[in-house]
Amino acid sequence: MIKAKPKPIEEIIHEIKDCSKVLVVGCNGCVTVCEAGGLKEVELLTSALRIYFMKSNKHMEIDETSLTRQCDKEYLQELEDRIDRYDAVVSLACGAGVQLMAEMYGDKPIFPGVDTCFIGITEEQGVWTERCQACGQCILASTGGICPIARCAKRMLNGPCGGSENGKCELSILVGRDVDCGWHLIYERLKRLGQLQRFGQPSDDKDWTLSRDGGPRIIVKEDSKV
Amino acid sequence: MRLSYPSNIRIVKVPCTGRVAAIHLLKTLEMGADGVFVAGCLEGDCHYQAGNLRARKRVAYVRQILQSIGLEPERVAMYNLSAGMGVRFAEITREMTEKIRQLGPNPIKSAGAMKEAAA
Amino acid sequence: MNTTTPSRLEKIIAAGHLAVTSECGPPRDGRADVVGKKAELLRNHVDAINVTDNQTAVVRQCSLAACIRLKLMGLEPVLQMVTRDRNRIAMQSDLLGATSFGIHNVLCLTGDHQRFGDHPSSVNVFDMDSTRLIQTVKLMRDDGRLLSGHEMAEGRPQMFIGAAENPFADPFEIRVLRLAKKAAAGVQFIQTQCIYNMQKFKKWMEGVREMGLHEKVAILAGLTPMKNVGMAKYMKNRVPGIDVPDDIIKRLAGVPKEKQAEEGIQICLEQIEELKQEEGIRGFHIMAIEWEEKVPDIVERAGLYPRPSVN
């Protein structure tokens, strides 16, 4: 799922400080799973904001709610009746949700409350790691189910590089934590699957037009369109 | 044990401090409390394994939030003691009360906004 | 052995001589004389001179400009190219530029991650990796085409294709397989990471020979003389991918400070002698960073001077 983390409160305060009525809207989808923007986080944020503005002697009304998702119009529509009352909305959805809300309610400033980080998985409670870069053309079949685009810092297709040491990426010494070498993981997995011959062959070229590099993307499923 | 401790303490009992969430601590301050502390079992002695460790982390998290919004992080604290340590409990309450007294009342109480909300 | 390009380096290797290469790093500004001065020190003592490409992701004068300068000085440059900073368009473009000046050697590298350098917040290109770059150069040279399919009737690169290898990073099996992959992609010569752990290096060479790679690829052993024990410790602890055994450190620490440089050169010379006997070693890549003036001394004392002449 999409993984995000809460924005520094100072940033949010900076955006809403001239308002007097703000609605904080969470999302029960991805950001709930990674504990960044669900109802619990909405409550925490609104409580903190209220304390801040009360302390600053500023009159500020902060309301809270959460929607099933913010990436589908039908849920965002639920805000139709009440959104006009507010000067601004802080959305704790991922970047996609914030944008759709802004599209639907174009006259209302919609501020993001989380930093959307990556597509990833839960390693353990409280720890999420990146797995997918949405490159548009999945090559996991040839790399034993481990993605070199997301898990190799240099997105090499013929890794590892010379900096891979004991299964760790050369970046580990820089970032102060162990970063797995994606290609080392691929090598071990291919070995386990008895597919090491894939490792010995130079890989096919990658067409980056299908990724972000090709421009903003669209998927159309004709049989689903009404 | 019939020890005396300050009467300004309001005790909220929980089966384990692991039950205490960050929002409980923050809301307490939002509602006007001058300070809040979590008294959990000694580390390693949690009846539910690690509840008190989770509580400690949540206290740390709330302190961070307080830092960001300009409220003194010391208004929230974590203490560890066993159920039998009556003397220590009294000590803690006195310590915490003294600390809060030095910090002064919760600033939101004096601010006009709080009075308005209460009205 | 036939040659595929007019490269002097290739000809020397093909003729069965032990090749000698070295490197010079361009300055972090636009001065015109720095690279030339360093290279001039090496003129008669090496067969080709590598110019590094924004090494460690630190911005320096570009390798292509410096290589052109060396070429105009009548020297034989090796254009080092990393894939970190340029996409396939820029890389092919630079290769064509190099071709127009008659540069005949290219070292294809992926490159240290940009976070190591002085502009860590920059975008990460890596449109290709070293293996893909090797394939690209080969395509341009042998098929006369760009990756897009565009055909070049004339002006095709005539480049001797090289790459780097690090025999010391674990796990060991991957190190040999990587070389095999690059060989399959078309690499013709390899310069290794600088060697201090002779045992480990020989183990890698064993693996290389087992796969018959020493016959497909000319391996040049990388060597860097230690200036003092401080440098040895730094390289051991702070530079990724370099393996400095404790007995080298002990050896350097065991001599007085003013004798350490000479001891470092001694170690280097002993390594050269040992590696001359190693099957599959076709030469030496002597990297005396900011100590280029020592290279002629090392080459002479190693019995590798004068350099053979080839036409």
Mind explaining what this structure looks like?
- Chain A contains nine helices and seven strands; from the N terminus they run βαβααβαβαβββαααα.
- Chain A has two domains: 2-117, 3-Layer(aba) Sandwich (Rossmann fold); 133-208, no CATH class.
- Chain A has 226 residues and is of the alpha/beta class.
- Chain A has helices at 9-16, 30-33, 39-55, 73-76, 95-104, 148-151, 172-175, 182-193, 196-200, and strands at 2-6, 21-27, 61-67, 88-91, 110-112, 114-124, 127-132.
- Chain C has one domain: TIM Barrel (Alpha-Beta Barrel).
- The two termini of chain C are 15 Å apart.
- In chain C, strands 1-2-3-4-5-6-7-8 form an eight-stranded parallel beta barrel, surrounded by six helices.
- The model of chain C has no long low-confidence stretch (mean pLDDT 94).
- Chain C is built from twelve helices and eight strands.
- Classes of the chains: A alpha/beta (226), B mainly alpha (119), C alpha/beta (311).
- At the A-C interface, helix 7, helix 8 and helix 9 of A face helix 5 and helix 6 of C.
